[in-house]
Design a protein that fits this description.
single chain; about 325 residues; globular
Length: about 325
């Protein structure tokens, strides 16, 4: 193999390795989080609102009932997972780029038939180099964009959004009270279920959240089949089968739900729908079949926000998970 062919082989290997590291980092992270079968930020069905982003939660208490609440201590955002691999990838990229620039400036030494077909005293950057640089640049862009989005979730979880909303005072007395869309939706639900209680519903949500995440970590959704709608059960089960085929196990431990807030409530086609915003944290990492960690951190919990939608037949008491969405 000539020196030219060897260089091309090495550069191609580095590019493929970097891309592989990127996708390994973005695949399989808790139930419904940009999982293996899809790059979408949502799974399942929300009826007529399936393609509509969930709304920010609003208070369902009338102004005269609102009270200022103490601000929760802010939790520091968790460091991004996979620091070692990102550092390694960054070093490889930096070394390769430096090498290309080194040759393009004519410091490659007096090698005859230099890289890219250039003459003695420098190789220049060839077409293959440009393609590799473009691919690597795109991968870096995706990694940075993904990390920024995760950090924004952690900032929200740390209290950045809640503090101002919970300290809001009462509006002036001369302003007429206007019912929110959430309140109107809950009122419609209570027409068929006078015993509907928000706090009790939040308890049901937390219970389902724990059960689904535990089942996902065990790669067996059968124990929670009855609390999941068919669409989302099929999506998550397909992701689990893919994990099994690839020898991956997404471990979720120390699961903690910090807060559940109602976001939307509505009725359609004889069913009740409620979307909630869940602020939670957990240890989220991936191992191979032998238990060796291949992605994530089993010591640092990750904080996040997600929107979970639940559905039931109108007037029934059997709520099922029907969709999971990440903030846009």
């Amino acid at each position: 193999m000539s020196k030219f062919d060897m260089k091309r082989y090495i550069i191609g290997f580095v590019a493929v390795s970097v891309i592989g590291l990127f996708f390994a980092d973005e695949t399989f992270a808790r139930a419904g989080k940009s999982s293996g079968s899809s790059s979408k930020s949502s799974i399942g069905s929300r009826g007529s609102r399936t393609n509509v982003p969930p709304k920010q939660p609003t208070s369902t208490a009338r102004p005269s009932q609102q009270q200022a609440q103490p601000v929760q201590p802010a939790m520091q955002p968790a460091p991004a997972a996979g620091g070692f691999w990102r550092g390694l990838a960054g070093g490889m990229i930096g070394g390769m780029l430096g090498g290309m620039l080194f040759h393009s400036l004519g410091f490659g030494g007096s090698v005859h038939g230099g890289y890219g077909g250039a003459a003695v005293g420098g190789g220049g950057i060839g077409l293959f180099d440009i393609i590799v640089l473009a691919v690597i640049g795109y991968v870096i862009y995706r990694i940075v964009k993904s990390r920024r989005r995760e950090n924004s979730y952690n900032v929200d979880y740390a209290g950045g959004d809640y503090s101002t909303q919970y300290q809001a005072g009462q509006p002036p007395d001369d302003l007429p009270y206007q019912q929110t869309e959430l309140e109107a939706g809950l009122e419609d639900i209570r027409r068929y279920d006078q015993y509907f209680d928000e706090d009790r519903f939040k308890g049901i949500v937390s219970d389902i959240f724990y059960k689904v995440q535990t089942a996902w970590s065990r790669r067996d959704l059968n124990p929670v089949r009855n609390i999941m709608a068919s669409d989302i059960f099929g999506d998550l089960n397909a992701d689990i089968e893919k994990m099994k085929a690839e020898g991956r196990v997404n471990k979720l431990e120390n699961i903690g739900v910090r807060e559940v807030r109602l976001s939307e409530a509505w009725q359609e086609t004889g069913k009740d729908f409620i979307t909630v915003e869940i602020a939670a944290s957990m240890l989220d990492y991936t191992t191979d079949e032998t238990g060796r960690i291949i992605d994530g951190d089993n010591n640092v919990p990750v904080g996040f926000l997600e929107y979970w939608t639940f559905v039931r037949d109108r007037g029934s008491s059997n709520w099922q998970l029907t969709a999971i969405q990440q903030p846009q």
